[in-house]
Each structure stands twice: as C-alpha cells, then as structure tokens.
Amino acid sequence: MPAAEPRQLDLFGLADTPARLPTTGHGPQPERPAAYEPFPADGRRRTPAAPPPAPPPSLPPGARWQTLDLDGWILGYTLRRARRKTIGLHIRDTGLAIQAPAWATRAQIEEAIRHKTAWIRSKLADRDRRLEQLALQASQWRHGGRIPYLGVAIELRLDGAQAARYEGDPAAPADGDRLFLPLPEGADAGRIQERAQAWLQTRARADFDARLRRCLAQAGQTIAGWGLSSAQGRWGSCTSSRRIRLNWRLIHFAPSLIDYVIAHEVAHLKEMNHGPGFWREVERLCPYFRAARDTLRRQPPDTLPLI
C-alpha cells in the first residue's frame, strides 16, 4: 500500500444639442427635442449616455451584434441561435458570445445576461488582463525589452557575451538597471525568454534562501528542506513533513511581498491551519502582512506576464 501524501497547505463625452427645427409661421409648431442640460433646473446632474460599443471586425457565421444597457454600462455581445437546450454565455477574445436555442426570446436572453452580470464583468476583466499580458510579452522578449524584477523594471540587453551579466546590484536593484544576456541582438523571443527566466530563477533561489533563513531564525523553527515551484495557482506551500515550496515568480515582486509569503509558510510550521493562532504568528513574523496579502490576492500567479 503506497505511503500517504504528507498534508500540505497552500497560499493562495457630452451629447450634441439638437439642431433647431425650421418653422413655417403658420399653425402649431412641432415640439422641439430638449437639449442636453449638464445642470438642469432640478439641480440633479444628468450623465450623458455612453456611446454603444462597436462590434468586432467580423462576426461568426449566423451571429448578430446586440447591445444591452445594464444600469448605464452598455454591454455588447454576439448572439447566435444554436441547437441547444439552454442559453450559453462564453467570454471570447472579442467579448461576450451567447448561444441560445431558437425558442429563447430576447427578454429571456437579456434576463440571463442580467443574472450573470457580475460573472461577465469579472471574466471580461480577466480577458483584458490576459490580452494586455500577451501584448506585453510581445514587447518584453527583445533587445531593450523590460521585465519586472524585485519590484522594479529592468532592461534586457543582448551582447553575445559568454554569460549573463547584471549592471547594478542584483540584491538591491534600481529601475532601469540592465541585464545583459549572452545572445546576439537578432535572437528570437523564445531564446531570450529562456535565458532571462533562467537568470531570474537563479536569483530567486539565492534571494529566497537568505530571506527564508532569516525568517526561520526569527520564528525559532527548522525545516527538512525547501525548493522553487512553478505552480500556476499558488505562491507557496508547506507540508506536514516540514518542506516548503516557493513560487519562483515571486522574484518579480517587491521584497516585502516575498517576505510575507515566506512568513506565511513558516507560520505553518507552528500552525498547520489558517486559524487565529496561525494569523497571529504571521503578524509576529510580518507585521504588514495584510497589505501584502491584499496585493497578492489581486495578482494570482497565472496572471503574471512571465509564464
């Protein structure tokens, strides 16, 4: 019978004024549309309607472009009828795509959208971040590209030397420091990414080791060992066998965030849970942990530009 896996805890614009209507001088005059009043007589400011979103350059076969006003947020989406039993909502690179059965009315489709508004907003925000990251990656991996390192942006330079070389202090980097990689200027993005990440992982191993030793001494704890991880969904972990894993991508962040993750895992050596005692120990080791925790919660590992 195989041995049981050790228990592991994870860290987780204004509207146009209508033109005047022509008059004939005879008979009743047509009613004039009211002009937009930024500050009307009742004292309540009117917010001009936002322009509707533009449809994508091309639509899938059989799809139509629709818009829906969700309390001032104009949502655009593609609607395609399909042989299915339910209304399906999907987030594509072009935005919200809906597939609906032939029997579903427009009102039913819009009700489904309203019911899932929070989910749609969240997923569209995720889409925007991912597309921004893809655009960033396209510009990162080149001569003169910039990457995040210990909370600052450093510049990649290709000089064809025999080994990577950092211009500055890698333990206390400054914005604009340069990392020279042993590659010709015409190297492709894949090779540049590979060399840069190898250097970052080497630095992560050295930097995290020193921080972990200090935290262990402060906590009065020992460990069986530690290593780097490339986990897509967590920053660190600690097992009941006293082994710690730290995500190498933490090397992109300011030292205070790295120290928080390390304190989190070291605290698990005393409290293998997330109860009040555990958080007291985290605060003892890292008094500013709440701000660091909130920052990392807004930046999960799988949204980093360097994957």
From TrEMBL:
Superkingdom classification of source: Bacteria
Ranges annotated as biased composition (Pro residues): 49-60
Enzyme superclass (EC): hydrolase
InterPro entries in UniProt: UTP_pyrophosphatase-like, YgjP-like_metallopeptidase
EC id: 3.4.-.-
Chain segments carrying region Disordered: 1-63
Keyword line: Hydrolase, Metalloprotease, Protease
GO-annotated molecular function: metallopeptidase activity
Domain YgjP-like metallopeptidase: 85-298
Record-given protein name: SprT family zinc-dependent metalloprotease
Organism per entry: Castellaniella ginsengisoli
